[in-house]
Write a structure and sequence with these properties.
Chains A, B: This is Chondroitinase-B domain-containing protein. 2 copies of one chain form a homodimer. By secondary structure, the first copy, chain A, is mainly beta. Chain A has 4 helices and 70 strands. In chain A, the strands form 8 sheets. Chain A has a 14-stranded parallel beta sheet with strand order 1-2-5-8-13-16-19-22-25-28-31-34-37-40. Chain A has a 14-stranded parallel beta sheet with strand order 3-6-9-14-17-20-23-26-29-32-35-38-41-42, with no helix packed on it. Residues about 1-30 of chain A have low confidence and may be disordered. The interface between A and B is medium-sized, with 34 and 34 residues.
Chain lengths: ~775, ~775
């Protein structure tokens, strides 16, 4: 009947108002069992027509298969009871590929079951909740979809995967992973009255791994921006799994007001949930799980006013300062809109910190000592005030000496009834932590709850603390004196937070079955590329001993190991053109070379990224190799990025240039690799760019770039280095030089370390090689 | 029964829970007719005891009479149904005087009928809605009270008359007038979570005249401050009469979010309702009434985001720029917290502007041309964006050429369906104003509504415009196509907005019956002071012709005219000590001298304020006088202030110093008189400080200081002026020199005008007197 009804409306609406009303009355009688008008479409034209004609209750079915280079403009007006639905014929079998996107315009529209991959958006967003500024979506929904690796060819070409506008829109049960280019994965926009008080929901999603971008603007979710940070948002982010969302220091960057973050799981994410701009957020009942080792995994970082952090569970987090389990920042007095407002009126109550060593850090970001190199409007000297930290629980399986780190004094914070088991180890306790020897009960691998706590105090009842009525698991706090996230000490049910079937689409899993790598033995040069092409990602190419003369670059676009087979060594002599690489690292190409001798013709290169269109990251490990006679050993071009580049037990000699990762010169905080590691290598007669690794721009929220050089020797290097620095790592935040020997290098400095950051050195021997110098405050270009 | 019940609770509560419950049940049966336990108190001790013992439903009666030097700490816990009331025995007959104040601590407390006068608070506020930071009031109320002239002795000693903290507190039906010292009359404070989401109400009050303070910090109501401008306030300011609230440029300074200003009357207030910080305010159905002449009377000035200005009525306003009927400011990009955020997402709809000439001014405060003298963080270059001005009505009885003034381009504003009757006069119309020849119907002296409007357009329906469902008078807009504040064109009922009985206490009126001044004829010197003391304010002292030798200063503490009686001239020779004045202007002393000859001994002064404790303003008019042989003609001491100082038709000769108003050197925007007028006067041989009038500090919101010098001659003056400027008016915003003659004055400059401000000159003759120079951008100390 509904079908007839729809047809009648379509064709007769102008002429038969009476009939319309009659049918409406008829229909209202049957509204409990609404039927649906389904229409399958096979082409863009059919889709456009179906959308143009759709009425409430219609279902448009996208036929299974690949939809390539399709821009879907989903405009229409559904109703709450009868939305218009655009869905996959079979969930997960409709692939949106190529240069494609999806825009919503209208009300009560649902998109269900699409899979975005192998492509990128021609516009600012893959999915956008508006057509244009006059056609903005409300009450629209994306559900059960996947967006995977849908990256712009260029890292600097920013985009978003899901851009919210309007009000009451929803992203649920989706899986999003693998964004490499600039821009948050999901962003809420609040420009315009149509998009404030938005009450959007981001729920039940699985945010899969996002590798470090190597610079800012790689949040998983950003809510607003500083320019709209005065606006009320009321977005709810709940019940999502964030897994290895490592894009940058902010997994979630809340930049608007009244947002709520509830019951999310942050699993080994190298970043934090940050209230960057805007105030009055609720952060309740979330899990922050670390690995007891990685200092990049963060918790919650607070800026601004009136946030409530309650019932959260922090486990095995070792982050410090910006990445602390709880980082409370200093603000800038009368801060510019886009910088750091003072923390005021926050409440941190009933949270549990297990094995987080020094979970609370205050005055984070204080930089009064840099007032000579920074303008006054950059100096974070305003300490938190009018704030309360109460009824929290801390357990350290290994006692620590400092539980609360005060980068600046926490004298504006009231500490009440916080209980700690520090295993009897003495610690600085001027904030009245109550010591108890309570024990833990294991609920799951990552979840522990306290057994009975033997402290004879009542929970502190601050202003409106009665609103913290439930605990992490939703149990009532009434009559419970138990502090921390969990109000009960017995009969605690495992919340199964890592059961991935609870998040994302029901038809998709990112769990990859482990498989043994296959070894492909190669004996002649012409087989190398063929074998690489045929191998599966993760496989091994084993070269029999001998000399391989390679004329054109070997293309690496998957994870592959190339090594010598047996005891003999394979020698690869590269005869390719000047400035071409022996190994051309393509997007997604992660190369391990092991036990090879690589030799160039003095004009070509050993390893290089593509010169452009590095839409995915590369990776490189060089182990036990001999490398000689190249122009560049490694050349990373602009907008290329590798999470890790490692040289180990390798000798490099007679090259014009060494490891070159210094093309990100726009000083916007970008760099070419997260970790550059050189261990037990010998550099001999490398004339310039021995190591050249650059990050530019003053940006306190890029905390990256890691250079580790250990147990290596550098001899007769740097003779042609114009800047007279052997290891040139300007702007890299973390540098550590240990146990190296520098001999007869014709430079002024082996290294210029940045004292204010994490740049250190120890046990190095310098012979006729200049010196290692530390400059406390490096002058860099201001980014903001 | 209630009395017995109270006693039982007081004396037996610990012992008779059962009895208590029984009585409670009994009482619940009679709750519709609650009786009240009244207790009259006569002393502070009795009051304190009564407060300490008060229970819900109690009424504490303050005995009639003067309560001097009393600090009332009204703590207690009433209930919504049964508040604790502190009231006057007879409303208006209980006077709080001396060093006194009132603090609330607790809930559901009411203060009713008190009269604060003749005193000042020893603390920061006369009435404060908290005892201290741990004892904050909620649901408390001040009603039916008067605070009048309750000023600190020193203008720079800041205080508040009513300071709100907590939530749900109320100031209603009160009269507040005559504040002269630093500080807003009423302020809402939002520091601390207890004081946000406050939903305070300021309703049905009469804010009587507040004279200009001569510098900033003299708002009538301030809601929050920049430091808490991110906080939700939700204060309601409704149905108040603001009468000549001239303290400074901001009558109301909204510095928090979500405040509502509804149905208030701003009657000839020299200032504006300003959304200074914070966003999302509603300004609906207010009246802004000017006098068709005074350019200081303002309207609404907008800064920040998301404000809605609807159904307001603007009449006879001639303010410009900051004081425009509608001033939409430019912001500072990435503004510091305490400066100017960009205007975005505002809606100005359904307002009426009658005889406001150029009612809409955009880009107000643009100062790009001052970028050489100001830091970048002071440059207001960000124009309004994403804003709508629609369905407004403009009527100019005299057509104007510029209706919309664009100080900077209004290119981010959408103009829709605004209708104007400009009497057929051509005007710049690039914003599509719709011209109509509609006529007006008079509803009252200040209220006019349009007759039928002959424009064939529909009202513009912007986003959420359906929420503007009622008009200025509360009539439904449904089915009305009439734009402007009033949706009907016939049968409009006079709203009687100036019926003062609708505002403030029922027992009080500030209407003063006009009375004829009485003339007191005085013949001998010893009678002068006696007669002044006995005269009523406004009277005339008429001196018979002759010479009066005065030995000690004449004290002026009321409005008094001293003049010669008849045709002969009275000569006053002042023989007083050096640096004492002939006329000592005390607080509230407003002196007119007319037709007198005043002569000093070269060491004493003609006119001076008190050196300190000028708790009220003074005033001075000198007409047709001869003044000679004084040290200072006029000496205004620091923290003294006169609204007007006028010299007319007067000769001043042989004085060491002239008019000296330059002690406000702390550069916080203060100055000593609002209007200094010199007309048709002769200055001869005045050696220094001929006119010395100073305002310091860069503060765009102090728009004051007015120096008008016309048709006067200055001869042989300035010889001992160290700065070599004859008329020294550094920092004064409005200066006009017209038709004067300067002859043989030994100075470099007659005047150094401030080109960027309102400093002008015309038709002056300079003979051997240096020059008049204009400096475009004066360098002043930054105040913020």
């Amino acid at each position: 009947m509904n079908y007839i009804f729809n047809l009648l409306i379509k064709f007769n609406s102008k002429h038969s108002a009476l009939l319309f009303l009659s049918l409406l009355l008829l229909c209202s009688a049957c509204q409990n069992t609404p039927t649906v008008n389904s229409l399958k479409v096979n082409t863009q034209e059919e889709l456009n027509e179906a959308i143009a004609n759709a009425i409430p209750g219609d279902e448009i079915i996208l036929a299974n298969g690949v939809w390539k280079d399709i821009q879907i403009q989903f405009s229409g007006t559904g109703t709450k009871e009868s939305p218009i639905i655009l869905k996959a014929e079979t969930k997960g079998q409709v692939f949106i590929e190529g240069i494609s996107n999806l825009k919503f315009g209208g009300e009560h529209l649902v998109v269900d079951g699409l899979y975005f991959k192998n492509g990128y958006t021609p516009t600012n967003a893959v999915i956008e909740f508006r057509v244009d500024s006059k056609n903005i979506a409300s009450n629209c929904r994306v559900t059960n979809c996947v967006i995977e690796g849908f990256n712009q060819p260029k890292r600097d070409r920013g985009d978003l995967w899901v851009q919210f506008w309007g009000r009451h829109n929803q992203l649920d049960n989706c899986y999003l992973a693998g964004k490499t280019n600039r821009g948050p994965t999901v962003r809420i926009d609040l420009k315009g009255n149509e998009s404030v008080y938005n009450y959007h929901k981001i729920i039940n999603n699985h945010f899969g791994p996002r590798a470090p971008k190597g610079g800012p603007s790689a949040e998983t979710i950003q809510l607003g921006d500083s320019g709209t940070s005065m606006s009320p948002s009321y977005t709810l982010v709940a019940n999502n799994l964030f897994e290895a969302c490592n894009g940058e220091v902010e997994v979630i960057s809340s930049k608007s007001n009244f947002n709520e973050f509830k019951s999310n799981v942050f699993y080994k994410c190298e970043g934090s949930l940050v209230t960057r701009h805007g105030s009055y957020c609720k952060i309740d009942g979330n899990y922050f799980i670390g690995d007891a080792n990685n200092e990049n995994i963060g918790g919650i970082r607070l800026i601004n006013t009136g946030h409530w952090v309650t019932n959260n569970y922090f486990y095995n987090l070792k982050g410090k300062s910006f990445r602390s389990p709880l980082a409370v920042m200093n603000g800038i007095p009368k801060s510019p809109l886009n910088r750091y407002l003072q923390v005021t009126d926050i409440v941190v109550a009933y949270n549990t910190y297990i094995n987080c060593t020094s979970p609370w850090q205050f005055g984070v970001g204080v930089n009064i000592d840099q007032k000579d190199v920074l303008p006054a409007s950059e100096i974070r000297s305003a300490r938190p005030v009018r704030s309360t930290v109460a009824n929290n629980l801390i357990y350290n399986e290994k006692g620590a000496n400092n539980i609360i780190i005060e980068h600046d004094k926490a004298d504006g914070v009231l500490f009440k009834n916080n209980i700690i088991n520090n295993q009897g180890v003495d610690f600085v306790n001027d904030k009245n932590l109550l010591v108890s020897d309570f024990q833990l009960t294991k609920v799951s691998d990552d979840i522990f709850v306290p057994s009975e706590i033997s402290v004879d105090t009542e929970p502190f009842i601050g202003f409106e603390f009665e609103t913290i009525s439930k605990d992490l698991f939703g149990n009532s706090r009434t009559n419970s004196k138990v502090v921390g996230a969990v109000s009960k000490t017995d009969n605690v049910v495992n919340p199964n937070i890592l059961d991935k079937s609870k998040y994302g689409p029901d038809w998709f899993s990112n769990v990859i079955e482990a498989k043994e790598p296959e070894t492909h033995i190669v004996a002649k040069v012409s087989d190398i590329q063929i074998t690489i092409n045929e191998a599966r990602s993760g496989d091994i190419i084993a070269l029999l001993a001998g000399i391989y003369k390679v004329n054109t670059p070997l293309v690496i676009n998957k994870t592959i190991t190339i090594q010598s087979q047996g005891d003999g060594k394979a020698h690869i002599n590269f005869l390719g053109e000047s400035n071409t690489p022996l190994f051309e690292l393509n997007p997604g190409g992660k190369l391990i070379v092991k036990g090879l001798a690589l030799k160039g013709n003095n004009t070509n290169n050993a390893f290089a990224s593509l010169k452009e269109n590095m839409s995915d990251h590369f990776g490189l490990s060089v182990l036990e190799c001999d490398i000689s006679d190249f122009n560049y050993v490694l050349k990373a071009y602009k907008e290329s990025f590798a999470e890790r580049i490692t040289f180990k037990n390798t000798s490099i000699s007679n090259c014009a240039n060494g490891l070159e990762l210094s093309e990100e010169t726009n000083d916007k905080g970008d760099y070419n690799t997260e970790y550059l590691t050189v261990d037990n290598c010998n550099f001999t007669n490398v004339k310039a760019n021995v190591i050249d690794y650059y990050r530019g721009g003053y940006d306190e929220s890029t905390i990256g770039g890691n250079l580790l050089v250990t147990n290596s020797t550098f001899t007769d290097c740097g003779a042609k280095e114009s800047n007279k620095i052997l290891l040139n790592h300007r702007g890299i935040i973390n540098v550590n030089l240990v146990g190296n020997t520098f001999k007869n290098n014709a430079v002024n400095l082996v290294s210029l370390l940045w004292g204010a950051k994490n740049n250190i050195h120890s046990n190095n021997t310098l012979l006729n090689s200049g010196e290692i110098k530390t400059e406390q405050n490096l002058k860099l270009k201001l980014m903001y």
